[in-house]
Amino acid sequence: MPRRSTLTLAERESLFAVPTDEAELIRRYAFSEQELSVIQQHRGDHNRLGFAVQLCYMRYPGYILPPTDDPAPTLLKFAANQTGINAGEWNNYARREQTRREHLVELQTSFGFQPFTVSHYRHAVRGLDEVASQTDKGIVLAQTLVEDLRRKKVLFPSVKVIERACAEAVTRATRRIYRILTESLTSEHRAQLDSLLEQFNGSKMTTVMWLRQSPGVPNAKHLLEHIQRLEAIQLPWVRLGERGRRDRFGARRGESLFSLWVHAYPKN
Fold first, then answer.
1. Model-level pTM?
2. Which domain holds residue 38?
3. Which residues pair with 206 in a beta bridge?
């Protein structure tokens, strides 16, 4: 199973946040004549305003406003001003659950919004391949994913599904990078690398742990030890090829595993 990407509470909220800046409100929520025409077709100010607010949320951030949630005050006021309706009419909206369901179906039909499906999940994971090969930061991956969903007018799934998709993309990228880093290794190379996990000179640490030690304070003993480590990592079998050398992110990934030593390459 892929590890779950970690988003902080603030990062989760940022994915679903409504803009407050006036210029951003205009850019995201200004209704076209066609949209206003569809809104005006509904009976009652409360239904017109409710329909308009749901349209705003589907456009940006890109999800269906839950029935238990109130809209952001800035968004509600902006939608009310455009439709010429008192913002207080929101309190009378969708007292019948059927009305709300009918509006959601109409919004998707009239404006081309799509519910998030298993197929969208698979496409989202594959669409993150390139970004996941460059970073494993959850918020960067999540922002890339939701921006793609907005472009395609696909409504957001829950934040847990977004995190799971990002985690799966990272797992795919990690496996791909490890494959690139190790594809040129022979059986002899693999055996030599496995030997790095053995105890070093009878001590409690493995050879790779010894290699990873910091130089320490500058004195003759530590300088000699550091020279020994430099000599060890320049052995001929520590070769992972040009592809691994160019993949800096892959090198950082490899560095996180004690079983794969990718710090040093021979100059030739």
1. 0.76
2. 31-111
3. 199
